[in-house]
Amino acid sequence: MKKIIIFLAGLVMLAGAVWGGIFYWKNLRGIGPALKSPPGDIARAINSTDMPLTLPPGFEISVFAKNVKGARVMAFDPKGNLWVSRTSEGAITILEIKNGSVFNQHDVLTGLRKPHGIAFDPQNPSLLFFAEEHGISKVQVDAKDTNGTIQRLIKLPYGDGHFTRTIGFGPDNHLYVSIGSSCNVCNEKDFRRAKFFSMQKDGTDIKEFARGLRNSVFFTWHPVTYELWATEMGRDLIGDDIPPDEVNIITEGKNYGWPICFGKNAHDTDFDKNTYIRNPCEEPFETQSYIDVPAHSAPLGLAFIPEHGWPEEYAGNLLVSYHGSWNRTAPTGYKIVRYLLDENGAYRGEKDFISGWLAKDGKEALGRPVDIIFGRDDAAYVSDDKAGVIYRISYLGK
After folding, report:
1. Is residue 7 part of a domain?
2. Domain total in the chain
3. How far is residue 137's CA from residue 153's CA, in Å, rounded to a whole number?
4. What is the distance between the alpha carbons of residues 7 and 12, in angstroms, rounded to a whole number?
5. What DSSP letter does each residue of 3-57 carry, written as one string?
6. Is residue 18 domain-resident?
């Protein structure tokens, strides 16, 4: 009997190993660039003659700040200093800038719980709002330290799944927050997950703005139409090429499909086994994506290019950071893409703007771009949570 039990246990272990190997081969062969340490210091590489990143003619990239481990969301204060959330480090850091260079950087807030979104109050620019996994708070700050006690505004759902909470002030002066799902794909038990909410800046009048959004980590407003644009990461583990990630125009009251729909009204029959008389992913039930992004690219930061400082044909276009895949056989993303738009945001195509973070035939990555914002100097600033740097991209002319 003992030998039989040992034999059966061995079979179970063998089956588990086989299943694990199949799962890895099917889903995780391309995870290396996301997990491995960078093969070199990208700051040194950029400043050498063997520059690894490729940009269009006339543009220059440099490392603006180093030793910014886990850099994610960025915001400029009224004095032109750059604030950065460092989610993995539990800190919010200031980069003090003088004559176009960082002369001091230090953590202003520490011991935070996965801080991500940061935003300054447009009507009181010394008031910093920040979002941790479990809530949104505000505090009065200056360039050196906090000037007041941290005040918690609202609690947010936390625990399983996506933990980044991103915030931003809209044209209506309301504060918006995106809250990701608790899972890869599921029917949520907490009504607050996979949604956008809006509220007054004191945390009152909280309203659901839009739903069906699995993980819209970054968002911004169009400079002409004032519509809310957001990047969206689709679910994992159903193939290299489905579902697409997305760029969406978020309209109040709309449902963007997750967990049963994705992309251009496609039905996720792998998850949703129900039978319908008509496609459940069509309007008016669900709202399709505005732009489909290659699956597993992990689109994050997005920024509209201003009307001045860059070539005329770039004005009003959209830059989007592709943080890069983990759930794909051949890695994809790890670049910044330029979406060609007309003045009202109509999509006209796309082009790679910066590429080259993938190294060694796609087996490793020098970095992973995250947020994108423009400064007073007409330069774009990009955070990189893998390399721990902030880049500066400027146009030097033809």
Report:
1. no
2. 1
3. 5
4. 9
5. HHHHHHHHHHHHHHHHHHHHHIIIIITT-HHHHSPPSS-HHHHHTSSS---B--T
6. no
Give the whole-angstrom CA distance, residue 224 versus residue 304. Answer: 10
Give the dihedral sign, CA 211/212/216/221.
negative
The rounded distance, in Å, linking the Cα atoms of 258 and 267 is 10
Quick check: is 143 in a domain?
A: yes
The residue type found at 110 is T
Phi, psi of 228 (to 5 degrees): -85, 120
Contact yes or no for 345/249 (Cβ under 8 A): yes
CATH code for the domain of 310: 2.120.10.30
Q: What is the DSSP letter of 314?
A: G
Name the one residue in this structure whose structure tokens are 């950029």. Answer: 46
Average pLDDT in the chain: 91
User: In this predicted model, what pLDDT tens digit does every residue of 242-251 receive, in sequence order?
Assistant: 999 999 999 9
Paired strand residues for 321: 336
Listed residue (177, 158, 159) closest to 167, CA to CA: 177
The amino acid that residue 197 corresponds to is F
Q: List the one residue out of 294, 292, 315 whose CA is nearest residue 305.
A: 315
Token representation of residue 321: 């950071």
| Structural domain harbouring 117 | 31-395
Alpha helices per DSSP H over the chain: 2-23, 32-35, 42-46
Phi, psi (deg, nearest 5) at residue 291: -135, 130
* Contact of 245 with 232, CB cutoff 8 Å: yes
Q: What is the pLDDT of residues 85-98, one digit of tens each?
A: 999 999 999 999 99
Name the pLDDT band for 38 (thresholds 50, 70, 90). Answer: confident
Measured torsion, CA atoms of residues 36, 37, 42, 48, in degrees rounded to the nearest 10: -90
Measured torsion, CA atoms of residues 156, 118, 353, 59, in degrees rounded to the nearest 10: 180
Torsion-angle region of 288 (φ positive above 0: left; ψ -120 to 50: alpha; else: beta) = beta
CA distance 245 to 97: 36
pTM, to two decimals = 0.92
Cα(282)–Cα(231) distance, rounded to whole angstroms? 21
Residue 12 lies in a domain: no
CA 278 from chain centre, in angstroms, equals 34
Cα–Cα distance between 221 and 252 in angstroms, integer?
Answer: 13
Largest CA distance in the chain: 82
Q: What are phi and psi of 28, to 5 degrees?
A: -120, 10
Name the burial class of residue 315, with classes exposed (0-12), middle (13-18) and buried (19+) by CB atoms within 10 angstroms of its CB: middle
